[in-house]
Amino acid sequence: MARVVVDVMLKPEILDPQGQAVQRALPRLGYEGISDVRQGKRFELEVEGPVDDDALARIHQLAETFLANTVIEDFTVRVEEREEVTPA
Amino acid sequence: MTTRIGVVTFPGSLDDVDARRAISLAGAEPVALWHRDRSLHQVDAVVLPGGFSYGDYLRCGAIARFSPVMETVVEQARAGLPVLGICNGFQVLCESHLLPGALTRNDHLHFVCRDQRLRVENADTAWTSDYTEGQEITVPLKNGEGGYVADERTLDELEATGRVVFRYLDVNPNGSRRDIAGITNEAGNVVGLMPHPEHAVEALTGPTTDGLGFFTSVLKKLVTS
């Protein structure tokens, strides 16, 4: 099983009031020096079979039509590499 | 022959019963439509009601858009069927790309619930012909994600082609671009808005009866066409 990660973020020009609320809370919690926070979504897809170009193309399409609303959001698709577990 | 207007119920719809009641009060026959049923049962128009379809998971309206009933609604809307999306229904119409733009989290992050004054900007759509351009109406507004956004080019185009149907007056309750409360498609048969006309149809329960005009408008259009 391979894992494909889709990250969805509001486009830079779209106001992110949730991210702003998080950013404004930071000084109160003692975290200084963080000038901006943007909040997004991360989807972890467990894929059966090989993650080849064809599978990635289908996931790209799924992200574009369903996971993200491209009117207001951008997305990235990447295969998450797993560290090989070497038997002792 | 009675005019039949369908109201779709999705899991999580809240205002489907009020919408059906408004349709009855306007003199048409309300028809309950179910999200898993592809058939529109020969209705003459469709209302997508308010609520939280599919729990608002992923994005408001994002999952409802792919329900079996919406396949037919999208197809028929493109062929001219009058469709009204109220609140969550507006979000579904944007997610379905029947209307441009999207609805995002209110800029102040609070759920808003108030009687909202609106200006009717376009009285030529299937759902607004009983109003006059420039008329001011008051209907309830209740949403957490009602901020209308679209890119500047789309906003300019909506303004230039008269497709802004309603604008907020007094206050902008949710950070909508250019105070936009409701819009229509090019043909004027599909209208979406965040405020709730179906809650303003009787003196006993609404702030006004200003919302009834939506339903009498479409009824008149269907009877005369």
From TrEMBL, chain A:
Keyword annotations: ATP-binding, Cytoplasm, Ligase, Nucleotide-binding, Purine biosynthesis
InterPro entries tied to this protein: PurS (IPR003850), PurS-like_sf (IPR036604)
Enzyme class: ligase
Keyword ATP-binding part of the UniProt annotation: yes
Pathway: Purine metabolism; IMP biosynthesis via de novo pathway; 5-amino-1-(5-phospho-D-ribosyl)imidazole from N(2)-formyl-N(1)-(5-phospho-D-ribosyl)glycinamide: step 1/2
SUPFAM superfamilies: PurS-like (SSF82697)
Domain of life, source organism: Bacteria
TM helices/strands, residue ranges: none
EC number of this enzyme: 6.3.5.3
Subcellular location: Cytoplasm
Name recorded for this polypeptide: Phosphoribosylformylglycinamidine synthase subunit PurS
Provenance organism: Streptomyces radiopugnans
Lineage of the species this protein comes from: Bacteria, Bacillati, Actinomycetota, Actinomycetes, Kitasatosporales
